[in-house]
Design goal:
Blueprint lengths: L1 H15 L12 H6 L5 H9 L3 H5 L4 E6 L1 H5 L3 H7 L5 H9 L2 E3 L4 H10 L3 E5 L5 E7 L2 E5 L5 E11 L2 E6 L6
Parallel strand pairs: 1-7
Antiparallel strand pairs: 1-2, 3-4, 4-5, 5-6, 6-7
């Protein structure tokens, strides 16, 4: 019974997850992110890294997007340093670590995790990988450094892909 409740809560989280306001399939990923106040730090970082054009192309892309609160968890000096022009390469690597080629909808991710015995390795645009798993009814990303992030909102559809919202920045 407990397993059934856990499976139901995972499915419910993905199907009924609160989507971010201003979601539009007419807008691309960058336009959707820019229209959402909770992604202002992410949008600033994408601009500083000169990745706007990349994320406006046809794609499709799946972006695991950290919120402003997720960026606030980083040490203040880390974020400030990443946004400096001389650190653009490092910032690009961090941001492209949050992007996957293809249109990975939440239900597909959940099925793949289940089909792969509870863990799924995902290769990112940075060339590195992270692991997706489940814990206590949540979908969790484990980054290359062993840190975890929870997917808190799913399936924000865009014209060139989809956004899933993270509560913590993941690092390659």
């Amino acid at each position: 019974m407990k397993k059934m409740i856990t499976n139901f809560s995972l499915i419910a989280m993905f199907i009924f997850a609160t989507t971010v306001n201003a979601q539009s399939t007419k807008n691309n990923i960058v336009e959707n992110a820019a229209s959402i106040d909770d992604f202002s730090t992410l949008v600033t970082a994408v601009k500083a890294a000169d990745l706007v054009e990349v994320l406006q192309t046809e794609g499709p892309f799946t972006v695991f997007a950290p919120t402003n609160d997720a960026f606030a968890k980083l040490p203040k000096e880390t974020l400030s340093s990443l946004l400096k022009p001389e650190n653009k390469g490092t910032l690009q690597k961090v941001l492209t670590y949050h992007v996957v080629k293809g249109n990975l909808m939440a239900a597909d991710v959940l099925k793949a995790v289940k089909d792969n015995k509870g863990k799924l390795s995902v290769k990112t645009l940075s060339g590195d990988s992270f692991t997706v798993t489940t814990k206590d009814g949540n979908v969790i990303i484990i980054d290359a450094k062993g840190n975890t992030s929870t997917i808190v909102k799913t399936d924000v559809k865009s014209s060139n892909g989809v956004i899933h919202v993270l509560d913590t920045v993941i690092l390659p």
